[in-house]
Amino acid sequence: MAGSLLIVAAPSGAGKTSLVRHLLQARPKVRLSVSFTTRPPRPGERDGVDYFFVDHARFEELREAGQLLEWAVVHGNLYGTSREWIEAQMKAGDDIVLEIDWQGAAQVMADFCSAIGIYILPPSMAALRERLIGRGQDAVEVIERRLAAARTELEQAYRFQYVIINQDFNVAAAELIAIADVARLRFDRQLAAEPALFGDLGIVGAAFDPA
User: Fold this and answer.
1) Which spans in 12-52 are helix H?
2) Residue 115: CATH number of its domain
3) Is the pTM of this model over 0.85?
4) Counted domains in the chain
């Protein structure tokens, strides 16, 4: 597969979505994977753009048919990623950003050894609380539940190759872009992009072992 798979995870409110959106604007060749979810749309979210919104029955059909690369229960809702879509985009040479929770990230990284794991951290728990309140999207009890979950989720940061502390958005955004750019310079990506050059130099692609 010629494309890179960038897995970005973070506790709710850490700024993951805003950072990924900035990356997509800065690097048009990077595409966002659209996940299935059983949760209801939030204000402004569009089906097929932000998520594929499905009911529990449809989600179970997809899972049982083996069409989900990963799936997880997050805050009582189901989330999953289309295996067929991801593989097709990567085969075509596109870089894909998978914006998911750590459970899903662990499943994907087990399947794709070349996947790049990126974890977004808030500068502090106090800052995380302020951001969740500032969004104005959730009731107080939901925010408290998300904060409690965040403490457990933050313990999973060690699973990822890269960690970005989102204290200054511009700095964090530049760091995420840098990771995406460096991914394009890996041996397998360069080999796929310039096969004639590698052949002329006598570099054998079969010698590369991504595992």
Assistant:
1) 16-26
2) 3.40.50.300
3) no
4) 1
